[in-house]
Each structure stands twice: as structure tokens, then as C-alpha cells.
Amino acid sequence: QVQLVESGGGLVQAGGSLRLSCAASGRTFSSYVMGWFRQAPGKERYFVATISWSGDSTYYVDSVKGRFTISRDNAKSTVYLQMNSLKPEDTAVYYCAAAETRFAKVVLETTGNYDYWGQGTQVTVSS
Q1: Of the candidates 44, 29, 12, which has an alpha carbon nearest to the alpha carbon of residue 100?
Q2: Rounded distance, CA 127 to CA 1, Å?
Q3: How high is the pLDDT of residue 103?
């Protein structure tokens, strides 16, 4: 079992920045692919970014490329999502997720591939 706890959400004006954190506990963090997803009211949960357990591979949804950066610190069992140039359409609950893998460079963008989820943190971007 892996427990995930997100933090860092809040209210920010358009153009501003936030840094989300997701702290993991329970098992060896470094063997997990990590992902960030978001869900706006009345919509499905969508992929945002993912990072391999080695940290060498990352992948983003097109709408956040160049604005968001995913990173991880395996020593701290934490994954981050740095969000810059925020837009009102980025408003959503952001969830981190973990999937166990034997492969160092695997990244995953489908919700069904992930085994563990955090409780989410609200990000609201005002115009």
C-alpha cells in the first residue's frame, strides 16, 4: 500500500504560479511511476503530467507543455508539479497517483494504469 497526500493548492490570479507537492508513504517510492491528474467540476479526471521512477522520463498533456514541470525527489518520497503562467482553465482539483513498475523509464498517462491516488488539492485560477 502507498499513501499519497497532496498539498500546495490554492487561489491564484491568472499568470501566477503554484507548486504542488505529493508526499508518499508506505512502500519504496522509487519503484513507482508518478502522475498528476486534474478534475474540473462536472468533468472527468484528465491526465496532466507523469514522471518515471528514475526521473529521466516525463510527459505532459499538450495544454500544459512549457508551463508545468513535474519533478521528484526519491530521497524525500515526494513528487512536485510546478505550475507557471496559470490560466483560468487550469482550475480543478489536482490529484497525484502512483503505479508500481519494474522499468526505470516508464511513464503512464491513463488513469486506469495507476494503483494509488491521493485525496486531491484544489487549484483555483481567477481571471
Answers
A1: 29
A2: 40
A3: 85
- Residue 114's pLDDT is 95
| Residue 119 CB-density burial (10 A; 0-12 exposed, 13-18 middle, 19+ buried) | exposed
Residue pair 124/38 in contact by the 8 Å Cβ criterion: no
- Alpha-carbon gap, residue 72 to 122, rounded angstroms: 20
Neighbours of 74 (CB within 10 A): 16
Say if residues 20 and 41 touch (Cβ distance below 8 Å).
no
Answer yes or no: are the C-beta atoms of 68 and 90 closer than 8 Å.
no
What's the CA gap between 71 and 20, in Å, rounded?
10
Residue 31 three-state SS = helix
- Which pLDDT tens digit goes with each residue over 9-22? 999 999 999 999 99
| Eight-state DSSP code of residue 53 | T
**What counts of helices (H) and strands (E) characterise the chain?**
0, 11
